[in-house]
Each structure stands twice: as structure tokens, then as C-alpha cells.
Amino acid sequence: MVKLADGKFYHYYCACKGDSPRSALGLAVAIPAVLGYNALVRGNKSILGSLNSFAHDLHAYFVTGARVNAGGEQGKVLPMKKGG
Questions:
Q1: Under DSSP, is residue 51 helix (H, G, I), strand (E, B) or coil?
Q2: DSSP state for residue 56 in the 8-state scheme
Q3: What phi, psi does 77 have (nearest 5°)?
């Protein structure tokens, strides 16, 4: 805590200088952690995209009673075949 001439108190934190071994250790830990986090987020986005597509197809089936075409045109709803 530092009191300046204007009478206000200011708090600052300085753990170490930039050329300290602790700075290098902090970067050595932080960079792989960020890369790992980004990889996990990217994987989650892929899974959620697949799940969202499945939910959309399932909803379309329940609402229309028709199946969604698995190949060819994406999202095209086809009527169900009569009989077996």
C-alpha cells in the first residue's frame, strides 16, 4: 500500500523482475496450460456441434414424422416409407 501526495492510497504488486528465474518458470507452466485448455475447448466445440446436429435431426423427426436424409443434401427431410 502506498499513500501518494493527493492523499489516496494505491496498492500495487510486484512479485519479481522480468529477468528472474521465476518469470521463466511461470511462462514454462502457463504456456502449456493455455495450449491444453484451448485443445480441450476445441474438442468440446466439435462434440457439441455433432450433438446439436443430432438434436436438430431428432426434433425434425418428432415434429414432421419424417426422417432426415443422411447423405447428399444436408438437412433435407424425406418422408418415411410406407410399410416394412
A1: helix
A2: H
A3: -95, 125
First to last CA, the chain: 80
Does this model's pTM top 0.70? My answer is no
Separation of alpha carbons 33 and 40, rounded Å: 11
What distance in Å separates the CA atoms of residue 68 and residue 57, rounded to the nearest whole number? Answer: 6
For residue 31, give the C-alpha cell: 504456456
Rg (CA), the chain: 28
pLDDT digits (tens, 9 = 90+) for 43-75: 999 999 999 989 998 998 888 887 776 655 555
**Spatial distance between the Cα atoms of 10 and 3, rounded to a whole number of angstroms:** 6
pLDDT of residue 29: 93
